[in-house]
Design goal:
The chain is an alpha/beta fold. The longest helix has 24 residues, at about 590-615.
Length: about 625
């Protein structure tokens, strides 16, 4: 069993290093290899001089003179042995005056039980410190850029922890598959994620060796304890894991939850959750592809790059009281929080305690939003489970800070200065419409506050109730911007052409008052293998963000026909179609691009003629 376990850990380490971007070939063989396996490292004269006949599991080349030592053991109980052996190897290597081992990692486990990963950094002065991000230990492997950053700056603290999008989606798919194999209902998989994540808040490990009943009870107790600590105990029943009745099914359920636990550790989930990414939203997007419950009620999660863009153009500040009446997994609120943390770090504690408010009607989805905020250091936030349309926000002073409180009756003490939202898509004509949620949010706002919402483009051009709503909207508020996006923005959750609409509350739109119209055809992502992934090239959304920000906040911007223009809105227009297609001028044709297109067409016609001649 030991030899089998050690071999499986050998494969696990090599695969994960490859996934993190390392070239796992032998550096001695050329081809830009970066990973020595056991005996191979002795081909390097300085490593051989230090290690003598010792053979670590892996030695990774960070720089020509900087190395990372990795040692593995076959069971969890031996994680300290693996770590200490790696440290011993590193100290032997560091007797050299030419090369240094700056990183060490102990790995313990096997494919059945999962793998523990413990990584530390060796400072130039001899100190050994655990590698951390946002003061949380990382639990997976480092990328080449991260390892070089630590070495180059003689620090154990990562400056960023950006999880590769492809790797993240791959882990999400793997988790979904594990839960599927355990026959866990597709609409309950997000709740399993919530419980497992909360159980990971503590640095102590659950009882993996216990029976399914003991292990699952341990996970539930840990999750409930965290919720109690953060005054959110009412969510415990929504995320409680429930074992099936049959013994074989229980064992399968336990095995799936254990694998989920270690898959999350692989991407340093505790540290990454405190970063600038809504990882839970990304995971839930994957689950949404397979579950129908959220789709049936019109839930479509807003992609992370859109929530970040929205927080930027609205200029979220610590002094703002931010509200999302349909907050889902909390993506917009996370983006608002992260912008304040980045720009006003001294004020972020006050902001997250007193000025972030969100309502989510689906309890299991609200639980994900709660988990999102707990991992950001504070669960006593104002995210609740409920029907936003039956709730109002009124201003309240808390500990000397301007804040708000939920009430069941309408009040006159408005509190909200900024709204970020993506209301549920209306699925039937007799359902509540998207604009119902917008009206509710406006009712909670201070005059001259800013509201940003994502809606299907039809809301801004359709006749009937939508037209009457637009007339009413502009009679009382100013339409600042309408920004069109590709119809695959929400792929694979939904296929709908969305727009972002920005409104200034309480200032009627003047006749022929100008509005910014933008048409974004490239938001930085493309469809690839049933996913939307970053394409890595310069893109419109990023290039235009500064201009959009400038107009919303009173500045003048350069305009480009067919792409970004300010246009007067004719309030007497009986159709009042407020969409970029209606207002933007035709784009000017680029002569070089036109010549290239004509040349391509001509070549294709010649090719077709040749084919016909050959036939």
């Amino acid at each position: 069993m030991t030899r089998k376990s050690e071999f499986s850990s050998y494969v696990f380490i090599k695969n994960d290093l490859g996934n993190m971007g390392w070239n796992t070939r032998n550096p001695s063989k050329g081809n830009n290899g970066q990973v020595y396996t056991q005996q191979e490292c002795l081909d390097h004269p300085e490593l051989a001089a230090g290690l003598k006949r010792q053979r670590p599991e892996y030695v990774v080349k960070v720089h020509e003179d900087v190395f990372w030592i990795i040692e593995a053991k076959g069971t969890h109980e031996k994680i300290d042995d693996a770590y200490n052996e790696a440290l011993g190897y590193a100290k032997d290597v560091n007797k050299s005056k030419i090369v240094k081992a700056r990183l060490i990692t102990g790995v313990a486990g096997n494919d059945d039980d999962g793998y523990l990963v413990n990584t530390a950094f060796l400072h130039l002065d001899g100190r050994v410190s655990p590698v951390k991000y946002n003061n949380r230990k990382i639990t997976g492997f480092l990328s080449p850029d991260q390892a070089r950053y630590l070495s180059d700056n003689d620090t154990a603290d990562l400056n960023e922890l950006v999880t590769n999008e492809i790797l993240l989606l791959s882990i999400a798919e793997s988790i979904n598959e594990e839960l599927h194999k355990a026959s866990i209902n597709k609409d309950l998989r997000a709740t399993v994620m919530s419980a497992v994540l909360l159980s990971m808040v503590s640095d102590t490990l659950p009882n993996f060796n216990g029976s399914p009943d003991v292990f699952i009870k341990d996970i539930n107790n840990r999750a409930e304890d965290v919720l109690i600590t953060h005054a959110k105990r009412e969510f415990a029943e929504y995320i409680e894991l429930r074992l099936p009745q049959e013994e074989a099914a229980k064992n399968k359920y336990k095995a799936a939850v254990v694998r989920v636990f270690f898959l999350l550790r692989k991407i340093n989930i505790k540290a990454a959750m405190d970063g600038s990414h809504d990882l839970l939203g990304k995971f839930y997007e994957v689950f949404l592809k397979y579950g129908n419950g959220a789709k049936d009620i019109g839930i479509v999660l807003t992609p992370r790059h859109i929530t970040e863009f929205s927080a930027e153009i609205l200029d979220i500040k610590a002094s703002d009281l931010v509200y999302d009446p349909a907050c889902g997994t909390g993506g917009f609120l996370v983006a608002a929080y992260d912008r304040v943390r980045r720009n006003e770090p001294a004020k972020v504690e006050m902001f997250k305690k007193h000025r972030i408010f969100g309502v989510e009607q689906q309890a299991n989805v609200a639980a994900l939003a709660i988990v999102n905020m707990i991992f950001r250091g504070d669960g006593k936030n104002n995210i609740i489970n409920g029907d936003c349309l039956s709730i109002n926000l009124n201003r309240k002073i808390r500990n000397g800070e301007a804040s708000a409180e939920y009430q069941n009756h309408t009040g006159d003490r408005k509190a909200v200065s900024k709204v970020l939202m993506n209301p549920p898509f209306a699925l039937k004509r007799d359902d509540e419409q998207e604009f119902t949620f917008i009206d509710h949010a406006l009712d909670q706002m201070l005059d001259e506050g800013l509201l940003l919402t994502v809606v299907p483009v039809s809301v801004m051009y359709a006749s009937g109730r939508e037209l009457e709503w637009r007339k009413h909207l502009l009679a009382q508020n100013t339409l600042l911007a309408v920004i069109g996006f590709p119809n695959d923005l929400f792929y694979p959750q939904a296929s709908v052409e969305p727009v972002i609409v920005v409104i200034r509350k309480g200032v009627p739109h003047e006749q022929n008052g100008k509005c910014l119209f933008v048409r974004i055809s490239d938001d930085g992502f493309i469809k690839l293998k049933k996913r939307r992934l970053p394409h890595g090239r310069p893109y419109q959304l990023d290039a235009l963000q500064g201009s959009i920000f400038k107009f919303i906040h009173g500045g003048v911007l350069p305009e480009v026909d067919g792409l970004i223009q300010t246009k007067p809105v004719d309030l007497t227009d009986p159709h009042l179609e407020l969409i970029p297609q209606q207002y933007l001028d035709n784009a000017k044709l680029d002569s070089d691009e036109l010549r290239r297109s004509l040349s391509t067409i001509q070549s294709e016609l010649v090719f077709q003629e040749i084919r016909r001649g050959l036939n």
